[in-house]
Here is the input.
Amino acid sequence: MRDIDSSSGFSRREALAAGLAIGSMPSLLAAQPVRPADEDRLWYDKPAAGWTAALPIGNGRLGAMVFGRVGQERLQLNESTLWAGAPYDPDNPEALAALPQVRALLAAGKYREATDMASARMMGRPLTQMPYGTLGDIFLTFTSAQTPTEYRRELDLASAIAATRFATPAGRYMREVFASAPDRAIVMRLEAETGTLDFDLAYRAPREIKLRPEQFTGDATPAEIAADWLMREEAGQVPPDVSIAADGPGALLITGRNEAVVGIPAGLRYALRVHATGDGVIVTSEKGLSVRGARRVTVLIAAATSYIGYGDIAGDPVGAVRGACEAAGCKPYETLRRDHIADHAALYGGFGIDLGTSPAAGLPTDRRISASAATDDPALAALYLQYGRYLLISSSRPGGQPANLQGIWNEGTSPPWGSKYTININTEMNYWPADPAGLGRCVEPLLRMTEELSIAGARTARTMYGARGWVAHHNTDLWRASAPIDGPLWGLWPCGGAWLCNTLFTHWDHVRDDGLLARLYPLLKGASRFFLDTLIEDPKGRGLVTSPSLSPENEHPFGSSLCVGPAMDRQIVRDLFGNTLIAGRQLARDADWLEDVNRARAALAPDRIGKAGQLQEWLEDWDEQAPDLHHRHVSHLYGVYPSGQINLRDTPELIEAAKVSLRARGDLSTGWATAWRVCLWARMGEGDHAHAVLKGLLGPTRTYPNMFDAHPPFQIDGNFGGAAGIMEMLLQSWGGALHVLPALPSAWPAGAIAGFRARGGVSVDLQWAHRRPTTLVLHGKPGSALEVRAGGEHFAAEIGASGQYRRNWK
Ligand code: FUC
Here is the structure.
């Protein structure tokens, strides 16, 4: 089988025409031998053997996994509001009376008793939240599938188009699929250069996917590899609550309901409309569409649910999908495609990275991943970063839902961990690369979710803690549930809302927009107020602490994770109070109350160094006796990254202690936990160590063939955390300064990055050679100044009247 090389084909030309390639990159890069944006591409010489080899597309709301199969194309579909259940209130009023008793048991060191009581009386009802679902699949089954003689499929990140090209003895074919945000539809184009297109299109309703062991490793089953026709009999089997009907010429209307889970009824309806146009004969029936003798076909897929907001499910999905299909149906394919590319480019463009290249960069993406441990492939890290940006743009768009544990891509109705929002690390990690990588606009859904969560969380604070302000625990879902779930060992952690606030404040710190700060302040104030009401004095006089709480999700040596005042809580609340002070003072609000916040911040129990020289995870020096010394969470290192409160410049002794802790924890863990370790080693100035850990993240154990992160199974946070970690090795922005090449690994001696955003609203372009900076250009407001640490120097960079500061090194 021969590969079809598309580099001289339409993708490159059209990307250039759309201004996406090197020409549109900042001028700094244009003069350099920088990897062009149209090399930002995943490609394969065979169809996807399984879901984790299929290619994701998304417009923030609608998503699809594209398999690129020859005989039977499969599009597995998602809509970001299709979750199980309906609005519900999980708060447990019994908690209020149990709270002082649980605290007393913890103070007495009776951890198991405290856990039993919390389990019986302090948990949310139901004990689990609602899972994110799937919208089912569309299958296009071709009547004359034959073994291809040439084959290539790819995902072009700059144009956000998944393309499959192949030739069989019957003809030459091309398919393109993209999820258009401006046209609110997935658009699929099929073309036969020679031969004809003859296929049946059918829908398969959502089903439960039980993860098989091989899906944990990313390997496909032999059956999957052999069976290009695998899904044939299943397509068209329709459960009773799903209806499929013809909806005019070439169109199908599919309607169904979401799932009822753990006693919460199914409140949502969904609709899917598929509309095919083309030059052949298209026949519509309640079984699907059949297309015969065509050369060019365009298939539009629109989907919606009745979800309007977390308390309002009275939307009209049928009206929405008919409207979207009709509007998109009026445009020729080329116009849909052009508008989609321009819309995507507005987010994707303006950022570039070049870490150098090697022969490995010429291999198909799956082969690069499997070879990455043993080969030199710096461009794979650059691609991983750009893929992270692509995934964020595709799964988190203003007006939509934030990226969940799987972004928006989920194959079945009972995904791992419900594919929810796990806010004790995973959701926050999703947004780590957003601002630095020039995608601050993608943070908007997280802001809106947090605003909604603060309303539910105020009820939880009142009902369960008798406190003012608002609280959220370690998970939330589409319905913004904020009570503790799963069990006290995981759920009874009151800092989820506070961490979201800090993440949003970091976003503000990058854009420095007054309107945004005014929008954030009520969130910060409410979260701070909860802690002012609930922090307690440590009986041993070490300061203010949380109780009950836990160091996510790590068991201490006394048969529980439940404890008083874990380090992470103190660090998160320290940031929260500090951020509230900055925001309140800048907005000239609540002067007296801010003094209370200031006093409480100073009274928080400080970080502690234990007898092994480690940064203590708990208030007590328990680290060495914990049952899982290599636990994936490194919660007490929150202070190092994403926070900067522990750093090389201001607290070197705590950094040394953090290194002791992290070395003991080990380098490789689950996908997201490995990505966190990359960020941490970078923040601690150890570029080669960060790079070694990154290699572990990019290898086949933690990266699937489609470059999705493997927890395992698939979880998207590692993609985002890894993208952030790659940037942290090159540029950091903390403590009022820009740190240039703070953790450059020896594997990347020369390179360039452009469009990096630093705190303070400054955009940074950097080139380096022989491991030293050669050119630094800052773009920002004329007159603004930034402290820069670069090449062993420390200087103030003032942005000139042109909006630029430039520095060249010899
Ligand atoms: C936390 C982690 C798990 C997983 C889950 C979604 O509970 O400890 O590893 O990532 O979230």
About this structure: Residues 5-35, 217-233 have pLDDT under 50 and may be disordered.
